[in-house]
Amino acid sequence: GSITTADGSALVKLGNTTVICGVKAELAAPAVDSANKGYIVPNVELPSLCAERFRSGPPGEEAQAASQFIADVIENSQMIVKEDLCIANGKLAWVLYCDIICLDYDGNLLDASVFALLAALKNVQLPLVTINEETGLSEVNLKQKNSLIIRKHPVATSFAIFDDTLLIVDPTAEEEDLATGTVTIVTDEEGRLCSVHKPGGSPLTGAKFQDCITRAITRHKEVKKLIDKVIKSLTPK
Amino acid sequence: MAVELDNGQCRLRPFSCELGLLSRPDGSATFLQGDTSVLAGLYGPAEAKVSKELPDRAALEVLLRPKVGLPGVLERSREQLLRQTCEAVILGVLHPRTAISLVLQVLSDAGSLLSCCLNAACMALLDAGLPLNALFCGVTCALQPDGTILLDPTARQEQEARAILTFAIASNERKVLMTTTKGSCSVEEMQQCLAAAQRAATTIFQFYRDSVRRRYSKS
């Protein structure tokens, strides 16, 4: 709830890496071929404020690749089912614009972004929208607000690879620059893999992969506990 | 050369490859997997712009052009995957302060596009004669709703599958260079797909050898 003008927001700090996510909800007509689905549009921005290597201008490759990764995580984990965002079949649906902005880049952007997105979505309060039968117009009831139905809680764990011998969890920017590769594993609470993202870099054997996955599953439990604690402390009593 | 590959229980679609078909790039290759085809052109090592040059190694740039429309966020993310995979195999330290550009054009997409791009990229690197420390190949696995693993899925099979995993496997000890997944799967299923992909990689590398041998035996 850090941003008061957004429908949901969260600020996450992983060491020095600071990421803020703001979710804005708007109404739109659903697409013709999927009339019962809403939209979720994630966008990751790496402004020049977060690190000196990012210049201002159109989004660079890292920002675009991160946006695609977040979109894939949402889709793969089914954390928000798009059918839940539909208000009236074929006429009205919610569009959730999720803006993830990095304020301080000290490595491990993907973990922090996924975490911020999850926390912000849990924080979202959507007003109840009904369609008036007679006039056909939508009526927004700002007094009555519901939370989003979040089905799965994906958590990302990133590792930096050094010459296929060493694996470091949660790398800082310095470690990432010196690393010869990275792996990011996204797990959900059932121990299923939502995403295994290894964009090139040094080769890994199957056994090392298995190591990473087991570590990612343990980390998931710790992170889930933290999220639940924070959400509980926010709900007004 | 078209080859029908049968890898025990997992079938791969017929492959076909042509090397050195373009005259301007230093290396070019077109790779066909069933109906999916990608054309790759490689320029390099060439002079780099001062802003882009790296002092100790070659700077690699990958451009992926889709069949229709302008490149979007998905193409950028795939470019990043391809670039980092190629950077891991190219011995860039032998050519410092140079630029290597790899341009891929999607000619037709009938499933397993990313692995076709990876294969075309590797063939283009071979055709250009760049120093590599290993070869790599791309394999796509689709996990069907009933749990069976399909290698090299068609577009239809990809839509019906509940998870699609793409691996780039290196030729030294079949290690994994790149992984990307779509949809969720359990840990055991991922390990099974990885094992199947590593087996398929052996047949693909044999195909690479045969293509290159055929090219140089003619000229």
TrEMBL record, chain A:
<dbReference type="GO" id="GO:0000177">
    <property type="term" value="C:cytoplasmic exosome (RNase complex)"/>
</dbReference>
<dbReference type="InterPro" id="IPR027408">
    <property type="entry name" value="PNPase/RNase_PH_dom_sf"/>
</dbReference>
<dbReference type="GO" id="GO:0035925">
    <property type="term" value="F:mRNA 3'-UTR AU-rich region binding"/>
</dbReference>
<dbReference type="InterPro" id="IPR050590">
    <property type="entry name" value="Exosome_comp_Rrp42_subfam"/>
</dbReference>
<keyword id="KW-0271">Exosome</keyword>
<dbReference type="GO" id="GO:0071028">
    <property type="term" value="P:nuclear mRNA surveillance"/>
</dbReference>
<dbReference type="GO" id="GO:0071038">
    <property type="term" value="P:TRAMP-dependent tRNA surveillance pathway"/>
</dbReference>
<dbReference type="GO" id="GO:0000467">
    <property type="term" value="P:exonucleolytic trimming to generate mature 3'-end of 5.8S rRNA from tricistronic rRNA transcript (SSU-rRNA, 5.8S rRNA, LSU-rRNA)"/>
</dbReference>
<dbReference type="InterPro" id="IPR001247">
    <property type="entry name" value="ExoRNase_PH_dom1"/>
</dbReference>
<dbReference type="InterPro" id="IPR015847">
    <property type="entry name" value="ExoRNase_PH_dom2"/>
</dbReference>
<feature type="domain" description="Exoribonuclease phosphorolytic">
    <location>
        <begin position="1"/>
        <end position="127"/>
    </location>
</feature>
<comment type="similarity">
    <text>Belongs to the RNase PH family.</text>
</comment>
<dbReference type="InterPro" id="IPR033196">
    <property type="entry name" value="Rrp43"/>
</dbReference>
<feature type="domain" description="Exoribonuclease phosphorolytic">
    <location>
        <begin position="154"/>
        <end position="217"/>
    </location>
</feature>
<dbReference type="GO" id="GO:0034475">
    <property type="term" value="P:U4 snRNA 3'-end processing"/>
</dbReference>
<dbReference type="GO" id="GO:0034473">
    <property type="term" value="P:U1 snRNA 3'-end processing"/>
</dbReference>
<keyword id="KW-0694">RNA-binding</keyword>
<keyword id="KW-0963">Cytoplasm</keyword>
<dbReference type="GO" id="GO:0034476">
    <property type="term" value="P:U5 snRNA 3'-end processing"/>
</dbReference>
<dbReference type="InterPro" id="IPR036345">
    <property type="entry name" value="ExoRNase_PH_dom2_sf"/>
</dbReference>
<dbReference type="GO" id="GO:0000176">
    <property type="term" value="C:nuclear exosome (RNase complex)"/>
</dbReference>
<dbReference type="GO" id="GO:0071035">
    <property type="term" value="P:nuclear polyadenylation-dependent rRNA catabolic process"/>
</dbReference>
<protein>
    <recommendedName>
        <fullName>Ribosomal RNA-processing protein 43</fullName>
    </recommendedName>
</protein>
<dbReference type="Pfam" id="PF03725">
    <property type="entry name" value="RNase_PH_C"/>
</dbReference>
<dbReference type="Pfam" id="PF01138">
    <property type="entry name" value="RNase_PH"/>
</dbReference>
<dbReference type="InterPro" id="IPR020568">
    <property type="entry name" value="Ribosomal_Su5_D2-typ_SF"/>
</dbReference>
<dbReference type="GO" id="GO:0005730">
    <property type="term" value="C:nucleolus"/>
</dbReference>
<keyword id="KW-0539">Nucleus</keyword>
<dbReference type="GO" id="GO:0016075">
    <property type="term" value="P:rRNA catabolic process"/>
</dbReference>
<keyword id="KW-0698">rRNA processing</keyword>
